[in-house]
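User: Some background: our group keeps a shared notebook of sequences we're curious about, and every so often someone picks one and asks for a predicted structure to add to the entry. Today it's my turn. The entry only has the sequence so far, pasted here. Could you supply the structure so I can complete it?
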Amino acid sequence: MKHKSLYLIGSVAMLSLMLAGCGKSSPTNHSTQSQSNSTTQTTGQNSSKQSSQLWNKSKDQQLSDFINQWAPTMGQSYTKYDGHTDIRTKSGMHYPSDFDQTTVNGTHDSMGWAPSGKGSYDYNVVALYNYDRPGGAAGHITYAFAFHDGQPVALVDQSTNGTANWTPTKNADVSSNFARIANGSGSSSKSQSSSSNSNSQSSSVDDKTVGVLVALLQNPNWFKEYLNSGDMHYGANSDNSGEVNGYSYVTSNGDPESYIYFKRDGDNITIKQWTTSGDETVAEGHFETKTISLKRLENDYYSNVSKRAEVNGYVNKLKQ
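Assistant: Of course. Here's the predicted structure to add to the notebook entry:
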């Protein structure tokens, strides 16, 4: 009987030790599970934060790489806004500080710097690039890459006077690559600018460049001769100019026949030049008018890298 009692007491003691051991291991398991839940929650929060951002450093670098690849094919070099110091355009605007002094498509929709793509503006700008054209004129091409209602849109401003107005760029290369980067697809591996895509080129052709294209069409030998001698000029007619009111021109500053007037309306270029017939004197002459598409001019004189470089060289020599 005594041996049986000792056996029972020993069994109870052993069982108590086993239960105590199990009890001590439980907090460690709970702690591990708690840490796992905490890690999962933190990862989920980071993922949620990243997905809520429309723009980030990786996409910004992809856009910068694209601009640096594409710009030289257009004979241009762009300055990027660094997030601190305003970009100053040749027309005197300071971006992004002067966004509130501009319009978008002629309306007073708000624009503002919002590097995540999410902000309180109608157009939340995530990147800014500016190119000032050479010469004395206020020519510039300024791109504002923005999100409007959560969708990417590449805006361009080429205003030289009056209220600066932003419009969606017609440059298919720029707009499509920005959309691809914004949507996470990355830019296309090859810039489409090297092709003869007229829509891609048109947005980067300013009025002065159109004047050069028109002169090459109308009288290339005369244009190059006076350009090389420093006597070719570009300008724009103001009010009270009669039939050519509102037209721009290139001229060697001679008699009325030395002026080539032109006016752009979308893709159409109207050209007017004073001419005489038969025994008419210059004073008895008349305007001869023709219309040609900008697409045609670009295809003939601005369709590849070498042609663009040649035309841009003429633009730089053209006096104002």
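Suggested note for the entry: The first strand starts at residue 79 and ends at 80. The CA atoms of residues 161 and 181 lie 33 Å apart.
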